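User: quick one, sequence for these tokens?
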């Protein structure tokens, strides 16, 4: 368990406003559900390329929605990580759930 500490706490390296969006897998689960729903409509794919096109289209559509609705981290927010403003912020562990 001691070896996994770095991986478990990796999200703390991100700016504080991003952390709340990183700790949840809800957006990923919703995206996977949408990909499955679209694939089930087609049923049988004629080739691997057709699967890649469909899934790529779903991912592009989801990306566009996320960018327009600002529900997730946009390009500007991710740019903050590349050039962070200097702060004296101390990383704190969140309180444990009861």
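Assistant:
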């Amino acid at each position: 368990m001691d070896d996994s500490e770095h991986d478990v706490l990796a999200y703390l390296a991100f700016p504080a406003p991003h952390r709340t969006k990183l700790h949840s897998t809800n957006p990923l689960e919703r995206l996977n559900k949408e990909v499955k729903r679209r694939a089930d409509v087609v049923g049988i794919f004629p080739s691997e390329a057709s699967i890649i096109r469909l899934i790529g289209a779903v991912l592009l559509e989801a990306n566009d929605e996320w960018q327009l609705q600002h529900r997730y981290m946009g390009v500007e927010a991710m740019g903050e990580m590349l050039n962070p403003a200097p702060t004296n912020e101390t990383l704190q562990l969140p309180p444990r759930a009861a």
